Amino acid sequence: MSETNSAAETAAPHRYTAAMAADIEARWQDFWDAEGTYEAPNPTGDLAGDPELAARPKKFIMDMFPYPSGAGLHVGHPLGYIATDVFARHQRMTGHNVLHTLGFDAFGLPAEQYAVQTGTHPRVSTEANIENMTAQLRRLGLGHDKRRSFATIESEYYKWTQWIFLQIFNSWYDTEADRARPIAELVEQFESGARPTPDGRDWSALSATERADILGEYRLAYASDAPVNWSPGLGTVLANEEVTADGRSERGNFPVFKAKLRQWNMRITAYADRLLNDLDGLDWPEAIKLQQRNWIGRSEGARVDFPVDGADSITVFTTRQDTLFGATYMVLAPEHELVERIIPAAWPEGTHAVWTGGYASPAEAVAAYRKLAAAKSDVERQAEAKDKTGVFTGAYATNPVSGEKVPVFIADYVLMGYGTGAIMAVPAHDARDFAFARAFELPMRCVVEPSDDRGTDPSMWEDAFGSYDAKLVNSANDEISLDGLGVVDAKARITEWLTAHGVGEGTVNFRLRDWLFSRQRYWGEPFPIVYDEDGIAHPLPESMLPLELPEVDDYSPRTFDPEDADTRPETPLSRNADWVDVTLDLGDGNGPKKYRRETNTMPNWAGSCWYELRYLDPNNDQKLVDPAIEQYWMGPREGQPTGGVDLYVGGAEHAVLHLLYARFWSKVLHDLGHISSAEPFHKLYNQGMIQAFVYRDSRGIAVPAAEVEEQDGKFYYQGEKVSRVLGKMGKSLKNAVTPDEICTEYGADTLRLYEMAMGPLDVSRPWDTRAVVGQYRLLQRLWRNVVDEETGEVTVVDTEPGEETLRALHKAIDGVGQDMAGMRFNTAIAKVTELNNYLTKAGGPLSRSVAESLVLLVAPLAPHIAEELWRRLGHTGSVVHQDFPVADPAYVVDETVTCVVQVKGKVKARLEISPSITDEELEALALADPAVVAALDGAGIRKVIVRAPKLVNIVPA
Quick check: helix, strand or coil at residue 425? Predict the structure, then answer.
């Protein structure tokens, strides 16, 4: 703040200044904490026994909780928190029991990376960051129920994260019942013979390892050897959702490779249909729903088995089973498990030289190609413009409809993450297959009749021909013919044939893959799993939870050359032998035995999959959540058939990460009867981003934005011209502005008003520190309208306001109330400003009733100054729980409105009329107006169009 402004502010001893704002804000924040102002009561049982609570509607409002960064907050971070606070305050004032609180998502890589660099325990740095962020958030006056706050690193919290993991581990998905069931019920089916074992033997005849392997094929949480995203630079594997489009780690931008490792997975694919279908009942932005639908990727087609010489078959999924007669070769993903089983010892006689890659044997060719493919990202592997590469496996498969032997290749353009990791290649009708066939001199057969004049010999074509409208050709054997059929009919007929012959069936496929749930890190929830001497996984009993992290000397995983795909992870926990190797009695009747603990930890997403439930019942150490409490806050109700949080606000970047994972966990817990809500978040709102200008010098390096000077529309830093672009705000970009800076210079209420006034909440907007003063002056005018700046005395009078003032007041009340309910806070502030300016210009002291209504309108937006003015107006209770003003309809409707009268489309008169006038009355007034009579000049009237009360259009004869 300039010295001139400071001098002006101190001229009046009771003027609202930054110093006064700081005092007011600190005092009321202390008051709120001491009084428990924001504490939301839980039902103590059946609501019928709590009539006061039953009479109030509830509202559960949540923010995506923050990760406690060491850099603290910049002004972009609190945008959503302030918005939910304003909304929550308005809801309280309209009679709702509001649950609004905030915790911390505190496991994760940043604290661990800091620990690796400095030796500081991740808990120490994380808790320090939480303390700093808590202070910053408190300064903003956020009305959180602090009794309900927690951090995911607290053992009392992650005890239940581990407990939920065990519920998922001990469950399977019953496709007939379409829900998860306890694994014990599946075991009963095997024991009774109701469900046969894979090889038909009695369950009792199987070894413990064989039983464990069979159950692992059903469990919703399971360990498997599978291709994973391996990031040597981070020393850990990553979920698909944590890998960027260019094949690098989202955190740290390290290369990511495909590697085969034993990892924990969540069988989220079992819920693919429900995750897809239940989106329809959610009040979410359509863009987020679309992202989830695309990520789940449901497609209908057929599964087709291609027998391979020997005992194996290659299974493909295709949405174009009608083109099966055109399949002239097959391609497996390099990582496919069948590759090693089908390759022969030597190249078959007559193998084309182009197919071998120059290698002496199939094994050598496959090994070399696999190494090359592992070094490429999925995006690189699927690039349309790149040359198609691959190698023949030496094996042939049989096309089940034609009986032809077709060569089996591996190629990097086929991925394990899509379909079955194998394709039937129909090169005449697929551009990638066409390019591959050309490169490897493979045959092509036209089975879809081209609509142009290219003919039916693909060897003469420049590219593939694909169509969903053409007729089938060259597609017949002794038992079936598709020739002349359209695609839809051909697909139906071939699917029936495949099913009848036991070589395929109609099926649905999903793009969604199971969720990789292991991390080779220290700072995460330990798995409550131990392994016996046979390698069988055993869950810890609930009495042994929480399983806490041990102290370690070295927090770093073994990291590697980021470009070395052949390395393998080594976790920090695996180096702690005293913790890993234990003797336990698991209570299973086998007594104490030696076990080995799981040395991976859970991903950082685990703690955020269920935190909405912990807010409900944060001190419950006996169960996940009290059923009555969960039912009250999140249970299904009218308009919310699957239940969930009433309002969830956060960034759109979590569409297919946190939001998808949390939905999956909720559905499992719902199926098992632990919660009544099948969805975690009923209404989702994505706030925009506060952006800031980034200034870069000639080297492209960001320079401090605060030190850049503007001259004639150009920008200079220390005399050097710099470029300016609008982008993110952040410490690394040297353009961050902290909320502490703004609170010190103007006060928290000013910051709150400015962030809400910048524009619609769901739209990104640029930060401009110079514009903050506008909201500061609004608060100063508000203060002057109630308090004398010289004496500090309240200036309101106990007289009734005039009609004009009442109209201005009640229009504002009506508009602000609607805007608050619709989260249009920028327009609500505009209406408050308009009212305040009107009252200022009107002059004279305010009527008490007007002043009180004005303070109540402001209270959700600027709670500190509202509390102070409310108290000075003589009230003893907090403004937080006062009733929001209600508009009198008689004053909301304008006394008169202006009606435009047109003749031949030109305005000839304006009439001041009652807004309730009828069409007939308005037509009579318009025709009698002297200006209209003169314009008609005796002409007859062909038509009169009346749109009461705003328009009359007269068309002369």
Answer: strand
Please count the other Cβ atoms lying within 10 Å of the Cβ belonging to residue 947: 12
Q: What is the pLDDT of residues 278-287, one digit of tens each?
A: 999 999 999 9
SS (H, E, C) 658-718: HHHHHHHHHHHHHHCCCCCCCCCECEEEECCCEEEEEEECCCCCEECHHHCEEECCEEEEC
**For residue 503, which of 254, 306, 723, 238 has the smallest C-alpha distance?**
306
Residue 560: what pLDDT? 67
Q: Is the pLDDT of residue 938 over 80?
A: yes
Residue 636 has pLDDT above 80, yes or no: yes
C-beta of residue 830 within 8 angstroms of C-beta of residue 903: no
**3-state class of 197 per DSSP?**
coil
Q: Convert the pLDDT of each residue in 403-437 to its tens digit.
A: 999 999 999 999 886 778 999 999 999 999 999 99
Domains located in the chain, CATH noted: 1-35+746-893 (1.10.730.10), 163-168+180-269+515-597 (no CATH), 298-510 (3.90.740.10), 690-727 (no CATH), 894-956 (3.10.20.590)
Contact 59, 97 (CB under 8 A): yes
The two three-digit tokens of residue 610, written as one number? 């269920």
Query: Which residues is 723 bridged to in the sheet?
Result: 696
Rounded (10°) angle between helices 803-821 and 848-858: 20
Please choose, from the candidates 576, 631, 554, the residue with its C-alpha nearest in 3D space to the C-alpha of residue 112.
554
Nearest Cα neighbor of 519 from 585, 601, 449, 447 is: 601
Q: Token pair of 857, please?
A: 């309108």
**Burial environment of residue 121 by CB neighbours within 10 A (0 to 12, 13 to 18, 19 or more):** middle
936, 901 in Cβ contact below 8 A? no
Tokens standing for residue 776:
């500061």
Q: What is the rounded distance in angstroms from the CA atom of residue 516 to the CA atom of residue 229?
A: 9
- Tokens encoding 94: 């309209």
pLDDT of 3: 43
pLDDT higher than 90, residue 388? no
- With bands split at pLDDT 50, 70 and 90, how would you rate the model's confidence at 48? low
What is residue 405's three-state secondary structure? strand
Residues 6+ apart with CB under 8 A from 449: 456, 470, 471, 472, 473
